[in-house]
Design goal:
By secondary structure, the protein is α+β, with helices and mostly antiparallel strands. It is built from 10 helices and 12 strands.
């Protein structure tokens, strides 16, 4: 018999279901699981029915007591859904109580014995909690974007004054400055210019969340053409060669301005991080995602033959202001890939890459496809 009781207790422990018992004098005995469901610690005591009732909502007291009386007089089993008066967490707000009248062999006293188990959350409760969490995130993002906008605006003005007066000093008092002073002023102006560029990039990143433009079907070939056209001066200067191979005519849902910026950032990086003295070669391809376990999406790849990315930096490449090289080697603020990642995620897509140091990199962007007929 003891082995059976031990097996039963183990089963209750595994399932998270608690055991409880109410005797003829309204004294309650329950195990640790039942106490947890009631918002108590295992070491806390729960002496009688009154203390039990204090744990549940007052509106249910009368109906629950009636059910207990009926169980004791007519031997009717109890199955009751009870809600905690002060839930310990959002996930456990109530429990199901079940019991029936029992009598030990050779004894006249009876008692109610049964189980307590947590009520499963309804889909409505889960949805409410998800909506609440989403609203909090949106509010936090809005506050952060507002702060970034205000801070960026307030910081740009003093930077403009610093550089203006320093350059004015260079122009108006050239004889009062020796070579060292002029060099120091040049360093200060360059630092202020870099700071202004960082602030503008931060403001641009913050403003990505403020676009309320509805998504529309877009031909990715047109988006890529606009991105290349925006980089025309850079392409002429570096003599970069960009080829586009079309597997299928890609049409995606999105915002043309943001998607153009995404691919412009990736193309600019493919040109910038090129091997010394080599002509940049960039190959762009469009693939149907259904062939690559990404059904319903189009996958764009941008492959270069540049310097590649060290494996030590693979996990942080898309972090904000993450730079892998010094400014003497490559210019930029280190925010371009962070912006690209954010735009891809805003479109329900994702961005990733493959790279081998010294042998180039390939960046991939997966975006939701649209019906090509919708462009007509």
């Amino acid at each position: 018999m003891n082995n059976q009781l031990i097996a039963l207790q183990n089963a209750l422990d595994v399932s998270g279901v608690g055991f409880w018992q109410l005797d003829a004098n309204d004294q309650i005995h329950c195990d640790a699981h039942s106490k947890r469901l009631l918002g108590l610690k295992p070491s806390d005591s729960l002496n009688d029915l009154t203390e039990f009732l204090m744990r549940i909502q007052e509106s249910q007291h009368a109906a629950f007591l009636d059910a207990l009386d009926l169980a004791r007089t007519d031997n009717q089993p109890i199955e009751f859904h009870l809600h905690l008066d002060k839930p310990a967490s959002q996930r456990v707000t109530g429990f199901k109580l079940s019991a029936r009248l029992c009598r030990l062999p050779g004894q006249t006293d009876t008692y109610l014995s049964g189980l307590l188990q947590p009520l499963p959350e309804s889909s409505l409760e889960v949805e409410k909690r998800s909506e609440s969490a989403l609203a909090e995130v949106r509010s936090a993002n809005a506050e952060l974007a507002n702060f970034a906008s205000i801070a960026s605006h307030d910081m740009r003005e003093p930077l403009r004054m610093i550089t203006s007066y320093l350059r004015l000093l260079q122009e108006r008092s050239p004889k009062a400055l020796d070579d060292r002073a002029r060099r120091y002023i040049s360093y200060a102006c360059e630092g202020a210019d870099r700071m202004r560029s960082l602030i503008e990039d931060l403001l641009s990143y913050a403003r990505l969340d403020k676009s309320d433009k509805a998504f529309e079907p877009l031909d990715l070939e047109d988006i890529m053409a606009h991105a290349i056209d925006n980089l025309r001066a850079n392409i002429r200067e570096t003599r970069a060669e960009i080829t586009i191979a079309v597997d299928t005519a890609p049409v995606v849902m999105g915002d043309s301005v943001r998607l153009t910026r995404l691919f412009q950032n990736l193309l600019a990086n493919a040109i910038k991080f090129n091997r010394p003295q080599a002509t940049p070669h960039v190959n762009v391809t469009f693939k149907d995602g259904s062939k690559n376990e990404a059904s319903g999406q189009c996958i764009v790849s941008i492959k270069d033959q540049g310097i590649g990315i060290d494996p030590d930096y693979h996990d942080v490449l898309f972090d904000l202001f993450r730079r892998l090289h010094t400014r003497d080697e490559y210019d930029g603020s280190g925010i371009g890939l962070a912006i690209s990642k954010k735009i891809a995620e805003q479109h329900g897509g994702r961005i990733w890459f493959q790279s081998h140091p010294g042998h180039g990199s390939t960046f991939y962007v997966a975006l939701d496809k649209a019906d090509a007929q919708s462009l007509a």
